[in-house]
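This entry is listed below:
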Amino acid sequence: MGHASAVDYRRLEPSDVAPAYAVFRRSLFDYLLRIGLVDATTAADPPIESAWASQGPWVEHLVGTAAENWVATDDAGRVVGWAMSTERDGVLELTHFFVDPGLQAQGVGRRLLELAFPIGRGRHRVIMATQDARALSLYLRFGVRYVTTSVDLYRSPEPVEIASDLVFDRLGNDDVAVNAVAALEQTVLGHRRDLDIRFLLGIRPGWIASRGGSPVGFAFGAQGSNSGPIAALDPADLPAMLDLVEREASATGVEDLYFSVPLLNSIAVEHLLGRGFRIDPFYVKVLADEPTMHLDRWVHTGPSFIV
């Protein structure tokens, strides 16, 4: 693929999205091979088109609302690295950071991070990171530190009964719904994500949970196997919201339902394990500059591109 000295850097263009996504998949499966989760044959020819079918809308949404979006190209003009970040309410989050396996550990990643996740930018800074030691070593020099580990818990959903005094109202795809969810996210995460909420409302079901007429949480249901985000002002309300999503997923024929849960959220973890959910062996770390997010009452958006 060429040597790092021949690499150029430029902002991503529309025609770069497909090759950048392919770099992401090759890099991810190289990592999965190194930690023993896939074999060499799979890593050499990772699924790209089938993954795009489920992840493509998310990638296109993030590309269209990115704060910074950079690619590295070799001397033949081929995309060999990609780094993208979003900025929501002053919070800069690195969503994608991948270098072709043949060019890793040659300085390409550091330069991409300098461009897409510059030191000093953002009221706060966040990364959802794999456990790749080389990437983590870089991230920890870019103004973030360890907050928690997050795991995917999965099972075939069942029509579980919901034991709660909460009232669940289905969200519409309108400004009222966006503002209702954003206000709760402001309290739980410390920032609003209106652009992402509006996108979510267009692709998966959502509910506001209320008690005594006051909103106390929200839940986004299944889109394929993915779900979330889910948040509660009181962590004790999370089991009912998880059960709602599981029940609705069962009713719509979802085969395997995934929740991406920070291990700080002990109530959700214990509830899901008690329901027979299993932990997927692939997990990520949440890195941030300050512990401002109340992740003990939060379930991530799946797939885990953003917090």
About this structure: The chain has nine helices and 13 strands. The longest strand covers residues 145-155. The domain at 4-143 is CATH 3.40.630.30 (Aminopeptidase). The mean pLDDT is 94.
